[in-house]
Amino acid sequence: MLRLSKRVEYGLMALQYLAKSGGVATAREISDAGQIPYELLAKVMQSLKHEGIIDSYQGVRGGYALLFSPESINLARVVRALDEHTTITECISPSGDHDACQMLHTCTIKAPMNKLQQRMEESIGSMTIAELL
Amino acid sequence: MLRLSKRVEYGLMALQYLAKSGGVATAREISDAGQIPYELLAKVMQSLKHEGIIDSYQGVRGGYALLFSPESINLARVVRALDEHTTITECISPSGDHDACQMLHTCTIKAPMNKLQQRMEESIGSMTIAELL
DNA sequence: TGAAATCAGACTATTTCAGTCCTATTTCCT
DNA sequence: AGGAAATAGGACTGAAATAGTCTGATTTCA
Ligand code: SF4
Ligand code: SF4
Q1: Mean pLDDT score of chain B, rounded to an integer?
Q2: pLDDT of residue B84
Q3: Is position B90 within any domain?
Q4: According to a count of CB atoms within 10 Å of the terminal CB, is the N or C end of chain B lower?
Q5: Residue B1 domain-assigned?
Q6: Per the CB < 8 Å rule, is B2 touching A88?
Q7: Terminal alpha carbon distance of chain B
């Protein structure tokens, strides 16, 4: 249940790389350094861009760079950018979705699961990219 | 990545039920009460039994009962009993497996992931069945 | 103008998960 | 003794999520 996806792992490696380099790096460069499938990493970088964690520069001599200091990017945000399921249960929806669980009404563990969700988020959010260096 | 499996959800409901009832309850009874697929729940109960969280009684008038007080059963243990992946990465294996990741040697995020694993476990382990009542 | 890079979407293959089915065994009650 | 009700355990199927690949478009610099 708490195994992180390859997307997140790759994303963390990439962010770590960008933090270390301090400047602009290409997806190819990061892929080579970390032995990460290039095409998959490319997608990950795009997701990180959309989330606003990194900036991108197109064309030759392009690449990616961090938009914030490593210590101000916490892992919760990275997970939110790269993972489908960011909640412990489907009834806890980040954007108030209505595709919620069927047993929503009869469910007896909904409330405590909410509490757990908070604690988990705190755990993940307590770590930053700076702690990967 | 942190969506808990149905097995865990059902397991928590069942343990909550057992804690509330205080005595012996059958899988059928719990299944009916929580609208849980009976066959799947039956498997879950068996897993909980194997982990040593509950005791079972076979035959007519049989069923399941808690082996410990609700406040001494934490969710980390439940997850361990019911979930395949209890670690954040595959290189963190509970029983020192050797099916570890290929990039184990070149990986640059292994150490911090270990730290995160600990924090996550603390979060999950900090909640007990008693908090579901 | 061409090479190198991001951007975007569709696609396939693999693995995981939820759920079902079937049979054996145990135990109580009549 | 025998049947009903329960757990035990394995095999199986279908659906869904994930990992990875492919193709083409666009941007930008030299
Ligand atoms: S309502 Fe209950 S069963 Fe449904 S997703 Fe939420 S916690 Fe799980
Ligand atoms: S070694 Fe690195 S890449 Fe492999 S599982 Fe561990 S953290 Fe992930």
Answers
A1: 94
A2: 85
A3: yes
A4: C
A5: no
A6: yes
A7: 27
pLDDT given for residue A96 in this prediction? 54
Which range (A59-63, B75-79, B82-86, B125-129) has the least confidence?
B82-86
- Span CA (A11) to C1' (D21), Å: 19
- The residue type found at B131 is E
Question: Residue A1 falls within a domain, yes or no?
Answer: no
CA of A69 to C1' of D15 (A): 42
Per-residue flag: A61 CB under 7 A of strand D: yes
On whether the CB atoms of residues A115 and B75 are closer than 8 A, the answer is no
3-state SS assignment for residue B56: strand
Average pLDDT over residues A52-65: 97
In a domain, A102, yes or no: yes
Query: Residue B29 C-alpha to ligand 2 middle, in angstroms?
Result: 43
In this prediction, residues B29-56 reach a mean pLDDT of: 97
- Nearest Cα of chain A lies from the Cα of B117 at a distance, in angstroms, of 9
Ligand 2 centroid to residue B108 C-alpha, Å = 8
Contact B58, B31 (CB under 8 A): no
Q: How many domains does chain A have?
A: 1
> How far apart, in whole angstroms, are the C-alpha atoms of residue B133 and residue B131?
6
Q: Which domain holds residue B74?
A: 6-132
- Any idea what the CATH number is for the domain that residue A41 is in? 1.10.10.10
